Amino acid sequence: MPKRFEIVHKRVLNSEMSQISVYAPWIAEKAKPGQFIILRSNENAERIPLTISSHDNGLITVIFQKAGAGTMDLDQLNEGDCLADMAGPLGKPTPVEGYGRVAVLGGGLGCAIALPVARGLHQAGNQVDLIAGFRNKDRIILQEEMKAACTDLHTCTDDGSYGFHGFVTNKLEDLIKSGVKFNQVFAIGPMPMMKFATLTAKKYNIPCMISMCPLMIDGTGMCGCCRVTVDGEIKFACVDGPDFDGYKVDFDEAIARNRTYKAFEDKKREEHICRLTGEVRK
């Protein structure tokens, strides 16, 4: 039997993203679409919130992008290594029943979060158009898993190197103009992508739910890092979300807060590259 928080499987999805399955049966048996966990790769590492991509056979599977110091530390671990700790499932599950036809938009790493939401909606009997966007063909991940989780998969690339040439919002509008009637849009990905997905849905009077991914530390609402303004009120993504009505979210404020530690993370990436190459950067 695997050890507590042991990485049982690891899969490199592309040059920036990896997938790990961790032994945590007490979390796996309770997890639902849209919920997340918070983990630490070692006792001195920062806490990382990650959406649960799938959960079965006692394993929690998550996907992460090597975007900062914490995720670069996590990527150093391999099969057989154990995480320091993990808490979850956290957050409110995404409501999945009774919509009819829905569009689920995922952008980049957001596709890993959109996947369990699309799967949950599809299993609940909804007709699901999953619109997955990537920068180019080399960044595409999870195609087979996404095909199995929806009614129709529409893959988009910014540069046109694969699938639809354009952003996920362009494809959404393309489908709407072709006569498809969506009763609900779900948008999951970078803040600017979710902002413009909301604006596109609002243009056609379609409700739009978004999954917030702000700074987060404790996952209990105590630290206040994940606060977002929704309909003029302060909410905490970890306990009030992560899903919110996109029409009511102050995206500009959330985008500015998410950039707080960008300079720190950029510096950490440079230092990380130095250790790999042995070069000294100034």
Folded structure, characterized:
- With 282 residues, the protein is α/β, with parallel strands linked by helices.
- Helices cover 29% and strands 29% of the residues.
- The longest helix is centred in the C-terminal third of the chain and has 16 residues, at 262-277.
Per DSSP, the total helix count is: 9
How many DSSP-defined strands?
Answer: 15
Overall spatial form = globular
Structural class: alpha/beta
What is the residue-averaged pLDDT? 88
* Sheet of most strands: 7 strands, mixed
Order of strands across the main sheet: 10-9-8-7-11-12-15
Distance between the termini: 47 Å
In N-to-C order, the SSE pattern is: EEHEEEHEEHEHEEHEHEEEHEHH
Helix share bin: 25-40%
Descriptors:
7-stranded mixed β-sheet, alpha/beta, 29% helix, 15 strands, 6-stranded antiparallel β-sheet, globular
Summarize the structure.
This protein has 282 residues and is an alpha/beta fold.
What is the secondary structure topology, with strand pairs?
Elements: E1 7-12, E2 17-23, H1 25-28, E3 36-40, E4 48-56, E5 59-65, H2 69-75, E6 85-90, E7 101-107, H3 110-123, E8 127-134, H4 143-148, E9 152-157, E10 164-165, H5 168-177, E11 184-188, H6 191-203, E12 208-211, E13 227-230, E14 233-236, H7 237-240, E15 243-245, H8 251-258, H9 262-277
Parallel strand pairs: 7-8, 7-11, 8-9, 9-10, 11-12
Antiparallel strand pairs: 1-2, 2-5, 3-4, 3-6, 4-5, 12-15, 13-14
Helix pairs in contact: 5-6
